[in-house]
Amino acid sequence: MRTRDKYDIFSDILKAAGQRNVGSTIAEVTKKASLNPEQAKELIIDMLEIGLLEFNKEKTLKTTTKGWQFVRIYENLSEFIPISSKIDHMSVGDLAR
Questions:
Q1: pTM for this structure?
Q2: Of 33, 34, 4, 1, which is closest to residue 16 (Cα–Cα)?
Q3: CA–CA separation, 31 vs 72, rounded Å?
Q4: Measured by CB atoms within 10 angstroms of the end CB, which terminus of the chain is less buried, N or C?
Q5: How far is CA 53 from CA 6, 32, 45, 65, 69, in A?
Q6: Whether the predicted pLDDT of 1 surpasses 80
């Protein structure tokens, strides 16, 4: 299993918060994103500040339109990660051939 980076975790949080129409509690998001409460709190605050998440009327977390755009773009970019990691491990001579 590979280590998740911050953006992998952002995507997991956004998907967890967007699973239900009424939103998800912080505890539900924390569990679904496989985080400890301290990690979740810090990242959720960051995501609220940049507009990827919002608290709705029911006081639950909801993924915003901007949040869903992030997920879509991140998933599309993730398709290129295996290619870039192969390039990182190639020597300059390999690229010249």
A1: 0.78
A2: 33
A3: 22
A4: N
A5: 15, 16, 9, 9, 12
A6: no
